[in-house]
Design goal:
Length: 302
Amino acid sequence: FSINMDQLQLDEELGRGNYGTVKKVLHKPTNVAMAMKAGRELEDAKLNAIIMELDVLHRAVAPEIVEFYGAFFIESCVYYCMEYMDAGSLDKLQGAGVPEDVLARIAACMVRGLKFLKDDLNIIHRDVKPTNVLVNKKGEIKLCDFGVSGELDKSLAKTNIGCQSYMAPERIKGESQNNLGTYTVSSDVWSLGLSMIEIGMGKYPYPPETYSNVFAQLTAIVHGDPPELPEDSYSEEARDWVAQCLRKDPERRATYKELLDHPFLVRDRTSNVDMVKWVEKALEHKAAVALAAAKAQTPQSV
Ligand code: ATP
Ligand code: MG
């Protein structure tokens, strides 16, 4: 079905990226809650290119991919409606800790999602990071914001080297040489590994505050040793799996098939990890942190 703004009742803001906001909306005709992402303004020629390319999104149907409901345009801005994920993105759920069996399940879902995009739709994600991994209270883990087309990517404005870069070393190098042709699946595998590290450590592994500037931070990614999962909380198998994603040489990184056949994920196939319980606890922790922050901000009433 097609969607337009008149059918939507706007609810609260779900989050804000570098360029736009994502709002929860209710699609009144179907009574379905959705997440609506607004892109930035574009020229008409580009809008037409996007309309054609959006078609691919309707075919991106898999258990590990956030469902696409439709898009519409208002005054040269794209509005994009997708499945609402009621536990939000992983970056905000990792605070309470991520035990190894949960990490394995997240990894397995991400790899299956990425493999589906690549094998079935010939899409490379290009923006793998914890904010683009969404979770719901059923315990499902799904990917969003993948790079369907150059134009759509630009309209949703995601090519940026922010203060948290998940870009592979070869891409950082390519970018500085203004060479955009270097993107391959293996660059996504690096970003996947880095996301696992962030989820496992509970924080981004190249924290901006430890570097004097962005250049120093990017230099550490390109020339330093890749980060590892902490030894005290993860097994040798888990650590090896992540290490295979974070090889500096893209040719040496594991493929999706190898990652799925690795003992770390083979074990997950028969694991009965309680994801619903983990999401519940993670949300409680997130709410407690938000409450404490709000209290710290409000001046004491008399
Ligand atoms: P960037 O701008 O670098 O891509 P980002 O991924 O955080 O960063 P957005 O894609 O604009 O930025 O998303 C903003 C936030 O909105 C996300 O971090 C996530 O918490 C929330 N969000 C996005 N999509 C959904 C969704 N479908 N359901 C629930 N929450 C969502
Ligand atoms: Mg996003």
